[in-house]
UniProtKB/TrEMBL annotation:
It holds the Pfam family TctA. PANTHER family: TRICARBOXYLIC TRANSPORT PROTEIN. It comes from Peptoniphilus gorbachii. Keywords: Membrane, Transmembrane, Transmembrane helix. InterPro entries: DUF112_TM (IPR002823). This is Tripartite tricarboxylate transporter TctA family protein. The chain crosses the membrane at residues 21-46, 58-79, 112-133, 139-159, 197-220, 317-340, 352-376, 388-406, 412-441, 462-485. Residues 17-437 form the DUF112 domain. Signal peptide: none annotated.
Amino acid sequence: MEYIMEAIPLVFSPQALMISLFGVVVGILIGSLPGLSSTMGVALFIPITYGMRPSDGLILLGAIYMASTYGGSISAILIKTPGTPSAVITAIDGYELTKQGKGGEALSMSTIASTVGGIISCVALLFLSPLLAKLVTSFGAPEMFLLSILGLTIIVGLSKKSIVKGLLAGILGMLVSTVGIDSITGEYRYTFEIVELFGGLSTVAIVIGVFSASQVFNLASQKRSTIQYEYDANQKLNIVSKKDLNKNWFNMFRSGVIGTLIGILPGAGVSIASALSYNAAKNVSKEPDLFGEGSLEGVCASEAGNNGVVGGSLIPLLTLGIPGNAVSAVFLGGLIIHGLRPGPQLFTDHGAITYSLFLGLIVATLIMCVVGLVAAKYFAKVSTVPTNVLGPIIMTLCVIGAYSVANSTFNIYTMFIFGLIGFGMAELDYFPAAFILGLVLGPIAESEFRRSLLLSKGSYSIFLSSPICIGLVISIVFFVFYPYIKDIFVKNRN
């Protein structure tokens, strides 16, 4: 409590508040632009913090991290162009709501859910860091493999029309992720001696292609003049109602907790958190059929889970020196540049600075909420822009985003090719979101599976070697078969 009191003046000074506001605005812009990630945003601003007070520098980086995680949902909802890979799940229902003229409601729900998820993770960071950090030491290769498989179970929920097509799309995504260097043996796979493939296909370029470029092709093939099904110039753009908020408070809390716990685990990341939160929300929803067709519950779960990762990923970094994900690994540079070393001594030798980061994250999250809600109605007007104007703008952003990943024209070609693939998949009901889940989670599952077998000398019993493994296996079976069990109970009841 002593350090919290010392941190309050550092966080609530006019200078620190202006830095928080600046970080939030920059973070939202970075997150909403395809190709620019939270990792890139934090990395770009680390040098700028060198001349700041340590507390101000960490507050700026924390604000950018939190706001950019939320910012990806804006373009995902409005034009089905996830600003970051973490917003892929949000795009599933968010864009459908935009087409129904409910873009303002989806954006405001995303804002509030991101705020709640962020606050939950910040509170955990503030009060439970040492306790939750112990979870990290309990997760080894078999636990991480099963966790990634648990994240992939959402494919079953997404595959409404055909589970076979959903699984095929997911498998295709996993196959594409194998291109490049084998993470275990170091050998090249499926590169065909093409130098650009040695490092693998760019995940960001593929995501932009499958979701964004394909959307341009989709708009061009439709006869509608705007994204909305029926555009009325006199239609009011509303924000989410109190009724919908009241229905989703527990959804936000549950998803925020899931995101925080997933964020603590090194390598798990926002994609797993978003997928698990979405799946949990769908399985307990009274309106599961709306998921994938335009559900505020789906947007709420995905975004609360995403931002729950932010504080969670900093817990192992600050307490044990173990980054929870790529962003927190870059964040480590921000600590080092100010002479701060992660570990227990960080909370004692530099207590005021450390707790100023915790409180600063909470302040930045609240500022993000205000900015997001004020801007929601204006952002939503994108859905009323004529498609013959919007299409070229989206494609321009796609090209810039794909190129900016590594300043590579090869990524532009990759984006176009997968844009055509994504368009074809959507036309044939092959679930592009399932493909991206396989692409993102596949490498985690593969590497941890093979690492587990190396540790056990080929024995599959390692996947049942701990209570955590057993619990994850039970959860996987439950999430796979729950939709069918639920249908049976509903039929018997009727």
